[in-house]
């Protein structure tokens, strides 16, 4: 069997770890071949705090995904999240020696390398540099500067910063689980790829991903990422409040939240009561659903207000920054009853629940189409996007197609089915003529994002190898 752009995404969350294997079908949709889930035991608020437990959870999810799909997992794209992530806005420029020479990719890379040298707080590293809009010799609002002329190339950047130790701990867990780390993606960006349309990104939209340990925010306007933030609260604090407020154990509190919970107290009547079995022969405990909703409501309001404060900090009230498409809620927390109405009430913005089904093949199960798996689906999409960029890349020179080898190792990998698993066979073909003259041009942002993450993954691998 040929490779078929098979890819794996690994979502290391606070409550669950998900390994998802997928490929693109003939219609360009994502076909999920296998999924594995395990309880996340060594992660708190998106940060690894127990290496051994995290490795065991990763291995369990990987094994389940392999058994479900019949494929052997060799490498994964992993999502980065956690309370240590923060973002800053920065503007920088370079002066070009020859303004009469066309601006190329190397000029943009030079500008990005300059931003990467910014001084950060101790222990922090820049993990993502996203150019927003360029300015050439004072001419602003340029989205694609390649091919233009100018002496001064300037750009505003969205810079994402994180704790280097936290990211390296994730890398260590992946390596110790017996798989390769092929890429890193910010989880809010992965979720955005899965649930947002290009029209929403152009119009202006705020994606709120409510996870177990953290709530991630990503704001898009004019098709460009404008703001990201991580709020260190999620569904787990709601469960903790129920546990304390109702004097029950955590497992019961979680079930109560999922089955009977509501973010809007007015929906429940006073006489609606649920009975919880007592511990070790004790009498059952009766809990009013109205009181349950009040507990949930108080905590959800706090989370939404903190996210709304970040949206205000972005400046959404400015007519030029207006988020016409409003808010999209996703993640496990988005499944809470009446949360959409509560968010609309607090923010005054149109809100919808984000499902990743737009990019999924028609025969996908209802479970995979849940907001719960938005990040995992986005990571698989990102992994496929990375894998389609093979070692062979075409460039048109003098109107003649030419095959150019970039970073010859690693070789092109192919998958072959033997009974119920797939083995990766390394092959590399000799250069040959390519007759087509159509060259798919990548956007500047995509190329920059990929090239930077490739270098960052290499940096983590070097660190882990030297730490052996």
UniProtKB/TrEMBL annotation:
Positions of the SHS2 domain: 7-195
Membrane topology: Peripheral membrane protein
SMART domains: FtsA (SM00842)
Pfam entry (one): SHS2_FTSA
Biological role stated in the UniProt entry: Cell division protein that is involved in the assembly of the Z ring. May serve as a membrane anchor for the Z ring.
Xref: Gene3D superfamilies: 3.30.1490.110, 3.30.420.40
Organism: Flavobacterium panici
NCBIfam families assigned to the protein according to its UniProt record, in alphabetical order: ftsA
CDD domains: ASKHA_NBD_FtsA
Domain of life: Bacteria
Cross-referenced InterPro entries: ATPase_NBD, Cell_div_FtsA, FtsA/MreB, SHS2_FtsA
Subcellular location as annotated: Cell membrane
Similarity remark: Belongs to the FtsA/MreB family.
Protein name (database record): Cell division protein FtsA
Quaternary structure (record): Self-interacts. Interacts with FtsZ.
Keyword line: Cell cycle, Cell division, Cell membrane, Membrane
GO annotations of cellular component type: cell division site; cytoplasmic side of plasma membrane
Example GO biological process: FtsZ-dependent cytokinesis
């Amino acid at each position: 069997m040929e490779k078929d752009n098979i890819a794996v995404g690994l979502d290391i969350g606070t409550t669950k770890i998900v390994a998802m294997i997928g490929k693109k079908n003939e219609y360009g949709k994502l076909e999920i071949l296998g999924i594995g889930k395990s309880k996340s035991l060594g992660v708190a608020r998106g940060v690894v705090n127990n290496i051994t437990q995290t490795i065991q959870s990763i291995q369990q999810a990987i094994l389940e995904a392999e058994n479900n799909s019949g494929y052997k997992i060799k490498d994964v794209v992993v999502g980065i999240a956690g309370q240590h992530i923060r973002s800053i806005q920065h503007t920088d420029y370079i002066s070009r020696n020859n303004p009469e020479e066309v601006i190329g990719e190397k000029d943009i890379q030079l500008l990005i390398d300059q931003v990467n040298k910014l001084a950060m707080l101790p222990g922090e590293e820049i993990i993502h540099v996203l150019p927003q809009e360029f300015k050439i010799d004072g001419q602003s609002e340029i989205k694609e500067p390649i091919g233009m002329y100018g002496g001064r190339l300037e750009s505003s950047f969205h810079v994402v910063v994180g704790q280097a130790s936290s990211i390296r701990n994730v890398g260590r867990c992946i390596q110790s689980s017996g798989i390769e780390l092929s890429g890193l993606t910010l989880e809010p960006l992965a979720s955005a790829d899965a649930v947002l349309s290009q029209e929403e990104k152009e119009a202006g939209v705020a994606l709120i991903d409510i996870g177990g340990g953290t709530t991630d925010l990503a704001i898009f306007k004019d098709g460009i990422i404008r703001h990201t933030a991580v709020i260190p609260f999620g569904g787990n604090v709601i469960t903790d409040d129920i546990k304390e407020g109702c004097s029950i154990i955590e497992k019961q509190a979680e079930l109560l939240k999922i089955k009977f919970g509501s973010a809007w107290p007015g929906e429940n009547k006073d006489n609606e009561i649920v009975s919880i079995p007592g511990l070790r022969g004790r009498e059952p405990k009766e809990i009013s659903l109205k009181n349950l909703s009040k507990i949930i409501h108080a905590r959800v309001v706090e989370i939404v207000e903190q996210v709304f404060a970040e949206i205000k900090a972005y400046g959404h009230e400015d007519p030029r920054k207006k988020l016409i498409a409003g808010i999209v809620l996703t993640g496990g927390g988005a499944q809470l009853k009446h949360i959409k109405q509560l968010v609309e009430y607090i923010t005054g913005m149109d809100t919808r629940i984000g499902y990743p089904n737009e990019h999924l093949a028609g025969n996908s199960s209802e479970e995979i189409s849940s907001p719960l798996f938005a990040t995992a689906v986005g990571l698989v999409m990102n992994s496929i996007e990375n894998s389609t960029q093979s070692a062979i890349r075409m460039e048109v020179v003098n109107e003649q197609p030419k095959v150019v080898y970039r970073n010859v190792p690693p070789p092109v990998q192919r998958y072959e089915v033997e009974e119920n698993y797939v083995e990766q066979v390394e092959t590399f073909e000799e250069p040959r003529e390519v007759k087509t003259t159509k060259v798919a041009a990548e956007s500047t942002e995509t190329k920059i994002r990929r090239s930077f993450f490739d270098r960052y993954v290499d940096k983590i691998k070097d660190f882990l190898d030297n730490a052996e």
